Amino acid sequence: MSSRFFERSDPVAFAGEDSRDPLAFRFYDKDKMVAGRRMEDHLRFAVCYWHSFTWPGSDPFGGETFDRPWMQGGDPLALARQKADVAFEMFRLLDVPFFTFHDVDVAPEGASLQASIDNLKAVTDLFEEKMATARVRLLWGTANLFSHKRYMAGAATNPDPDVFAYACGQVKAALDATHRLNGENYVCWGGREGYETLLNTDMKRELDQLGRFLAMLVEYKHKIGFGGPILIEPKPKEPTKHQYDFDAAAVFAFLQKYDLLGDVKLNLEQNHAILAGHSFEHEVRYAYANDLFGSLDVNRGDDLLGWDTDQFAMSAGEMALVFHEMLQHGGFTTGGLNFDAKIRRQSIAPDDLLIAHVASMDTCARGLVAADRMLADEALTGPLRTRYEGWESAENRAILSGERDLESIARRALDLDPQPRSGRQEMLEGIVNRYV
Amino acid sequence: MSSRFFERSDPVAFAGEDSRDPLAFRFYDKDKMVAGRRMEDHLRFAVCYWHSFTWPGSDPFGGETFDRPWMQGGDPLALARQKADVAFEMFRLLDVPFFTFHDVDVAPEGASLQASIDNLKAVTDLFEEKMATARVRLLWGTANLFSHKRYMAGAATNPDPDVFAYACGQVKAALDATHRLNGENYVCWGGREGYETLLNTDMKRELDQLGRFLAMLVEYKHKIGFGGPILIEPKPKEPTKHQYDFDAAAVFAFLQKYDLLGDVKLNLEQNHAILAGHSFEHEVRYAYANDLFGSLDVNRGDDLLGWDTDQFAMSAGEMALVFHEMLQHGGFTTGGLNFDAKIRRQSIAPDDLLIAHVASMDTCARGLVAADRMLADEALTGPLRTRYEGWESAENRAILSGERDLESIARRALDLDPQPRSGRQEMLEGIVNRYV
Amino acid sequence: MSSRFFERSDPVAFAGEDSRDPLAFRFYDKDKMVAGRRMEDHLRFAVCYWHSFTWPGSDPFGGETFDRPWMQGGDPLALARQKADVAFEMFRLLDVPFFTFHDVDVAPEGASLQASIDNLKAVTDLFEEKMATARVRLLWGTANLFSHKRYMAGAATNPDPDVFAYACGQVKAALDATHRLNGENYVCWGGREGYETLLNTDMKRELDQLGRFLAMLVEYKHKIGFGGPILIEPKPKEPTKHQYDFDAAAVFAFLQKYDLLGDVKLNLEQNHAILAGHSFEHEVRYAYANDLFGSLDVNRGDDLLGWDTDQFAMSAGEMALVFHEMLQHGGFTTGGLNFDAKIRRQSIAPDDLLIAHVASMDTCARGLVAADRMLADEALTGPLRTRYEGWESAENRAILSGERDLESIARRALDLDPQPRSGRQEMLEGIVNRYV
Amino acid sequence: MSSRFFERSDPVAFAGEDSRDPLAFRFYDKDKMVAGRRMEDHLRFAVCYWHSFTWPGSDPFGGETFDRPWMQGGDPLALARQKADVAFEMFRLLDVPFFTFHDVDVAPEGASLQASIDNLKAVTDLFEEKMATARVRLLWGTANLFSHKRYMAGAATNPDPDVFAYACGQVKAALDATHRLNGENYVCWGGREGYETLLNTDMKRELDQLGRFLAMLVEYKHKIGFGGPILIEPKPKEPTKHQYDFDAAAVFAFLQKYDLLGDVKLNLEQNHAILAGHSFEHEVRYAYANDLFGSLDVNRGDDLLGWDTDQFAMSAGEMALVFHEMLQHGGFTTGGLNFDAKIRRQSIAPDDLLIAHVASMDTCARGLVAADRMLADEALTGPLRTRYEGWESAENRAILSGERDLESIARRALDLDPQPRSGRQEMLEGIVNRYV
Lengths: 436, 436, 436, 436
Known about the structure:
Four copies of one chain form a homotetramer.
Chain A: H1 2-5, E1 13-14, E2 24-25, E3 33-34, E4 37-38, H2 39-43, E5 45-48, H3 49-54, H4 76-94, E6 98-102, H5 103-106, H6 113-133, E7 137-142, H7 161-180, E8 185-188, E9 194-195, H8 203-224, E10 230-232, E11 242-243, H9 248-257, E12 264-269, H10 270-275, H11 280-289, E13 293-297, H12 316-328, E14 337-339, H13 350-376, H14 381-387, H15 394-400, H16 406-413, H17 425-435
Parallel strand pairs in A: 1-2, 5-6, 5-14, 6-7, 7-8, 8-10, 10-12, 12-13, 13-14
Antiparallel strand pairs in A: 3-4, 9-11
Binding site for Mg(2+) 2 (chains A, B, C, D): 269, 272, 308, 310
Active site (chains A, B, C, D): 102, 105
Catalytic activity (chains A, B, C, D): alpha-D-xylose = alpha-D-xylulofuranose
């Protein structure tokens, strides 16, 4: 079946920078060594199940455009298998090392929680079988706690404790499935953990509920021996008016308060970052500065639109700055670059799915190479070191280490008249332009 | 002199709801009891020095419009005294209990740090003398660590440790002055504590600098016996591209990391909230939920503009929701409603200063009364209690208190099929409209 | 059936300002005279079919929440009749004078254009029958040229001329139905008339297509004797990245270029206005200034969200400013206040539909009364007249009438030194607060 | 003097792509032929006077940072000459063909209109003399009708007709100076032609005033034989809440209504475009589609900030799309690329001025080359032609030429069932990435 969905049967291959084939890589050469690692091991690309295989092309003002064979009705588990065939065929064609999924992307919801869990188990069996002969591995799994109407007012933060309990049942099953498939991380996106209006919301209570929910998840992870981190994915709004996991800083505040540091890290996304008023690079920096970096959703938003467009990342310059930060910290450990990206609803040809991934994988590869060269040349790190070098003196180190107090420094300041130095922003922007 | 600046000499008085005099209060009746306190003691209004007496009406595309007598040049200290005369006359005419200032609003910067400190001391003497015979008290003082070019790349977060030291000198003097004038709080707004570009910024190092700076300030506060809290004022951006004190959550994350909880609270502003993507009410709720509430800057932004317009608050409905939250927590302790608000640059008549404050004070009073009535009627709190009442059962309390684990709850969930209940948003919005 | 959907059977009635019944009007008293007209004749409320009866409560991250009986599957025309029963029951309960619909809201799409037209005719028969015994009339009809996948790249602006032709077929049928039901206007919302990316878009050609499409629609309207205006509804974006009918000004530019003034007016919406960066009042003013005012969609957006939330209007102050403008121009002619508003997806109780409309109708009535009182007192119009009175001199009138040239005015200006006068913004804001 | 301001004395030269010198061009090779023209003749770079030589580095929260010698006080005309020496030295060092200025950038305002005009004449004499021996020419001049307090409520749209008259005097003098210096265009930016609040604004009257003002300017231009166009520069907001020249569409509507087409074109700016919710490319396309294209301000805004940052353009990809459009229409006629861009206020070194221009000129040159290659390969234009080719049939041409009516097309549509085709957005994005 799947061979009939995509016309091509050979995996997309590296063809060099001059290629004009939209189904060939110009920069992504998986075995090429960059900064001591194979490109594939740096980039750790993952294809997501939901946008690529589950979303029918609808938007708030229009219906299905994609007409995928597995969306045409029939026995739900048979359709799930048909979808899985195409998905694994695409993983093979793109030659990606990872994929990701929500429980409901892969398995139909049943008439009861138990039935849904059974469906998920059946699909997990299928995946296990497929993965035995495929290169692709599971980057992370997650539970969809936001689409069904029972979650309309939140899952962990629902005013109804039975919904909280139901979410516990669902998330346990999803983590079990992830663990069984050797997933390297487990992700929580709290799309309904927020509010539509404060008029009907007890924010403090809901945060306490969320804190407890995550604590139990961490306990369970340890109990079953799941070694990967729990990743929270910040997003400021949409679908709700306001989500508690607004941005990296809001999550950091939350994790400290509820004593969840260490076991929980961040899965960051460019589109969510800009909806919160931050650049992608900012969120990555903030995560590293506070030991929260986990994984990345690699997509892009539209700077002129106020909702999550989840477009394929196409800016090598933006990715270069992200990799520049990551390479200084050793790159990914358990994380990867997950394509939480969807082709536009007008991109209805099957090969649009492949073309989009190829173009964006190439963009990332180009950014990686640029970042590596910038670091090798100390193009940005050199000037940075110089800018702050005053803090390396013994007296100034003593300030930061807590050996000085306000009065003594204030007294010393009476003799100072510090003169500003140029921040050199345009020069640095010009330097970056040399590399991308 | 001051009698010639404002035409009227009698303080603005309460004249009842039907008054059409823009220089009379229609709702603010300072001695009227609301929720067990005098209105004045609830609202604790403060007039700020900078917008009202120091800003000349300029904007990025145009110069001075106000032509205040004390802005026309001459001996700096004489002008400072002339300005103080008008300021204290305005405090008297508005009959406000508080005022607020930055060091450089009230005293000219001198040729050296010592000279600036001396100027501030001279003005502090003058204020002490004036306050001895006036009703007005000091809500809070602060140091301007953002206007002078030495601070262009930050004060506490500057790459140059000499600038950090200079800021220590300035902030110590400002806290000393605040303490001497019996200020009830001390405020830190980090307008330059952020970055213009990440290309030249070491975020982690700068956050460490900021943490140390505040820790020393707290230590010093205790040493001199200053009893009020240090208040951080979050703002996401402007003047810089990105400020570290982005919003209440970012500050909470920071305070936890640098162990500053307890001594440091928040001074929240509506305009800063909306620039960060939050409602004012959200920030207030978040502050209370995390024991961070301190004080409020009462102004408003323009929802369609992307910068800090600092307009006078004129929405009783918005203020009612803020007071609704505050009254449930007992209202202000050391904090107050500071008019960090500026008349439009076209409002060049001297009495525009009075009219704007009067109209906004009335707006706040009206909001306070509405909030009190909503609480008395349990108009919002009643439905809220009902909505979450499921959590009051023993079994569900046990979840939150940590006596249950994921597996046991998941097992119990197999028998559940929770049905959603209406969130009643429109009904609640209609209810609020009954009160304002 | 419908009597079982809503519990109540008596129409909502006026009960006075002190009522606490969410299903009673506190301000809307339909026969009360305001500015020489009955309130009902001023406000001309319309209930829309799509949000109230067709939308299932889904959003981009979640499915159906409403579970309406007519959405549960079955014979499409039978379901359409069931839906119509509930709709007309709601029109009766709310006692609104008007309703509005898209073709596909009321009649199922068939397997061919002809079949769809036949379905629409069948429902038009049904409506005609129901309207014979009901008070409700048709404010406007419209064709949905944006939901079906054939329109994913536009209707009139589609790159495929066959889609353009299909849209002609659909819009002709919708106008025929509107005409037959004595609709007072016909509306065009160009939700897909724009682009997702300029990379694949020929903007000039598409604008020419759109101009021709509308010209033919105007010709046809005259031919069949449809007396109402064609109304264009501006919206800047969503669902597409950029719509050609961005705002009132973009439509005015377009109408002038394609010679469509006179026959085509505007249907303005608050939520679309703010997405375009304008206040609702701005768009209304602009429409009147250029003789384009037609009708209003009365809802509100969320100032902190970047998409169309279509919430029920609940701000009497905002509506007061809109009515203040409208009353100066005589109020509506063919237009009305259409509730293009949807209850939140958590408002799942049937009576939420009624409560939301009642609360918003009351908000509008309250705004109308406030506007009337402001005008009677010349509260805003008086100061406005004074502000511009200099232009009433003979010399200055001559400038505007074209009797002076740049040189003569420039020469006269050599003797001038004009002094600014206060714009009095805060005083005017305080005045408005007296009325709302 | 000027030789002492900049350290270097040799003009910046082309050094090839591998150069690492921030004061060498890597792409801009002025005599290199691209699409049949010298690069210099395509790009027509202009340096602006205001940001580079008049702005002191202040922002709304901070004062001067640049400390330029000519800003330190003294005889105004002597300082103006000193500034002009540095400016012309910079034009020479950057080897740009053009510059631009406002009247008040170059000449101090005097105590009366006549005195200001006299100052402008004196500086015009000086410029004439300097231009006699320099390569640099005047791209355009303009009058600053927004900074002085007399214009706080508008110039042409002021409620006070004496201000209108004063503006006539100033704009006549500025056009006279532009004409004398052989300026190729004359620009109007209506920074105060809008409103702060609709409460005190008569929008219709103000638009009529603005229409008359521009009509007189056009009449005068013809009278004195000034051959270039009048260029209006759209901007949606800032400094005011709302400007009448919101975007290209608003200006097009206005020009049509006031019969100003032909003589008036657009000067478009990226930063203004994005503040209005449009991409730069959109505004350029819209201008060409409606025969309004004039000239460009080449800078960039920050997508995450809500004000005019006027940063130097550094994205070759963005510029490539603009040039791609322009080259299809033959490129500039009288217009050019004006650097309405300012170095960041922390970029205080004199050579930051040069470095920023060089980096941005190179960005533009790189974009130009990419656009030329895309056109040569028909990389975008080929797929575009194919996408719309259905409209080339005789029947479909007849629709657009007005030979068909709604009924006949609707009848024909009964036999149609148009099938959607992929929009290929990701493929096209990937193609663009090949070129930049």
